[in-house]
Amino acid sequence: MRKKVDSRIRMLVENGVKTRQRTMFVIVGDKGRDQVVNLHYMLSKAVVKARPTVLWCYKKELYLSSHRKKRLRQIRKMMQRGLIDPEKEDPFSLFMASTNIRYSYYSETHKILGNTFGMCVLQDFEALTPNLLARTIETVEGGGAIVLLLSALSSLSRLYTLAMDVHARFRTESHSDVTGRFNERFIMSLASCRTCVVMDDELNILPLSSHIRELQPVHQLEGEEGMSEAERELKELKESLADTQPIGSLVAKCRTLDQAKAVITFLDAASEKTLRSTVALTAARGRGKSAALGVAIAGAIALGYSNIFVTSPSPENLKTLFEFVFKGFDAIEYKEHIDYDLVESTNPAFNKAIVRVNVFRQHRQTIQYVQPQDNQKLSQAELVVIDEAAAIPLPVVKALLGPYLVFLSSTVNGYEGTGRSLSLKLIQQLREQSAKAGDPASATNGGSEAVVAGSGRVFKEVELSEPIRYAQGDPIEAWLHELLCLDAANHIPRISGRLPHPNECELYYVNRDTLFSYHKASEVFLQRMMALYVASHYKNTPNDLLLMSDAPAHHLFVLLGPVDESKNALPDILCVLQVCLEGEISKKSAMKSLAEGNQPTGDLIPWTISQQYQDSEFPSLSGVRIVRIATHPDLVRAGYGSRAIELLARYYEAQMTDLGEQEEDEEEEEKEDLPTDKAKITEKAEEAVSLLTEQVKPRTGLPPLLVSLAERKPEKLHYMGVSFGLTQPLLNFWRKMKHVPVYVRQTPNDITGEYTCIMIRPLQSDELQQSDGEAWGSAMWLSPFLEDFKKRFICLLGVSFQKFPPALALSILDPKIVFSEQESSEGVRAPGVVGSGMALLSPYDMKRLDSYSRNLVDYHLILDLVPTIAQLYFLEKIPATVSYGQAAILLSIGLQRQELSEVEKSFATEFPALQQRPSTIRW
């Protein structure tokens, strides 16, 4: 039966096409795929050009196969079963046959990055994650449509309790009860997006989209009258530069005013030819950064630059950049094979990506791809271009900077969520270095900020804010950024009023049910929390938000200053802590894991320690791992992070709560705690409400957002742990927090180049000692692990950790280098160290050492003994007091097996060569 479609749906599609803004349709019902055909028809009628291409994403199975012959066989079978009328053409199969559809598994959506589609269809809602949402929606052009297909539901609130595929990764043996807070917030947020419509599979608009009632048709002006101010300015800029070559032809390729100004800034820096400029380009996704860099490289070739090096995490990431290099060449009339040729990679892993362009029109010029870690190949460079610098480890980016012109680009938010690490650290350092050499001055080009250093380097910043795929102010982009907190980095709250002393600050537990309830106040608080996350040194992805909201073992704490209750305002967040409860694994599971040699997901510290030490007892201990600690960027190194961790340790040691009072109310608390909130979600989901009349609203009667630690009973824990990328400052920080290392990974992380380190702090409380006994209730259980770790680390210093700086290795070992007179006078007492037979040092060895100590023989004569002596010394078998420098030299030569010449070079600044040889070893 034919049915008239609600005119507002067609109007929404047409308005989107006129304004170059995207629209979103959420269709509830099993027949939703049939309505995709109708929506695509409306869209193709409105765009008045080629039929829009479609991206169709799914988990495993499609209704009809994407393979043409298989699809025909499926249709034939359906006809035989009577599911399709053979007399009529099935609209859906006709749509599939006549439309350019790109099918993609959710697991392969990384391959569609950089492509643009007119429509995106997302089925299998349970397989969606925030990363996938951002990645797929980002590919739709302005005027396009996003269609989200949901299975038949009697109520939208049933989605709150829907088991998502990603939840399986969040469950651990001791924490298996997942609460779907993210789905609840997702559904609530749909009502706030004015170009989103939620409807059933007959295109009846649901009450959640009540804002659609006020929809009015948009009247778009044609020609110059319909141009925005920026578009008119861009047109004038292109006309004014038409006679200035090569810049005029290159700017003509730009799509937005921001992009044109960025290209002009790049070419200005290149035309100076002083080779002392750094230009940093930052923007969100889809703003045309790579395109601007590509056009700028073509301009640099026209200006005569000979050696241009391009780097990015992988040459495949440079597809867009090289595409626009060639578009730039077309603009300045360079012809392939006549003026330049290109070389593709023969490495199968790089998928035939372009790695070199040879130009031979004026003279021999090259554009060469180098891997980020090959900075030593840049000695002859004139221009180095770093694309997607935020995805490269910070030390590697710093090593790429040198005495040549540098262009770098970085994504500051968007689906990659590369964080603000690059812009906060590297760009800030470049700005400060330039400011030290001269006074800051503002550049007029491209809205960039330039710092001119008198005799140093010139540093310029350019930011692209105008999107290219769709119009400025696109409602879908605004909705997605708010939902996934992608734009939080641009809204880091300023600290108001007086800064409190760390000792005045208190730690509060954050109730996640209230935090993700989509109430106005809790949304502001969530955005502020995420702003601190993104502003910290962590690499963030939208999936982190899902982990925060739904993972049952995760908990959130915030450090706040003294709260003024007279002010009706949210307090300033000084520090955010995200922790994960781990352990309490049965011995049976631990034994099975050890026997099979596999490591289940979750419970990072218990499984790692269990596997490394082949210990089946450790996983049964309960612990808390600090997943993240993010301090306000204006308050770094002010003591707030230390205060937060110290308060957390005191809380889990039951020093913050009055246990006497707590025991009395224990039963009531168990009833009134989180299960109640989960019960409300389940109860809400099970209410019998018609889909067409259901009013979806944020829950009421929620508990307070912030809970004082004195009011919440802590879990019984044996230890507090942390896993992080090993650096000297971080190791020092965690040492100060009374953590000790128990594991260092033997291979560096592929992305950061850092070695993973696990440190543990034993927790002690009277309650633990009463329940678990003296052995597990005190810190005694940790000693065997520490001794074993120290022994293994000493042995591995000559193999896996040979390149460790001596200071870092010494900090990990934390050796005893000062002995009392009594200990020194007693000498070596350990059996098997000095003596005949199987002793480590024979009488002949002692004679050689004696002669060397009196400068009678050369050090080569005792070089074979140094590793043995070093090992004995750092295991505290030789009680000799030495200086820190001598201990570092002994470690470098004896444990890391370095040549004396290498040691002299590395220690030249701290220890003159004359002081190094004679007194390295003495007792």
From TrEMBL:
This is RNA cytidine acetyltransferase. Belongs to the RNA cytidine acetyltransferase family. NAT10 subfamily. One of its GO terms (molecular function) is tRNA cytidine N4-acetyltransferase activity. PANTHER family: N-ACETYLTRANSFERASE 10 (PTHR10925), RNA CYTIDINE ACETYLTRANSFERASE (PTHR10925:SF5). It comes from the Eukaryota. GO terms for cellular component: 90S preribosome; nucleolus. It comes from Chara braunii (Braun's stonewort). Its EC number is 2.3.1.-. GO terms for biological process: rRNA acetylation involved in maturation of SSU-rRNA; tRNA acetylation. Keywords: Acyltransferase, ATP-binding, Nucleotide-binding, Nucleus, rRNA processing, Transferase, tRNA processing. Residues 3-200 form the TmcA/NAT10 N-terminal domain. It is found in: Nucleus, Nucleolus. Gene3D superfamilies: 3.40.50.11040, 3.40.630.30, P-loop containing nucleotide triphosphate hydrolases.
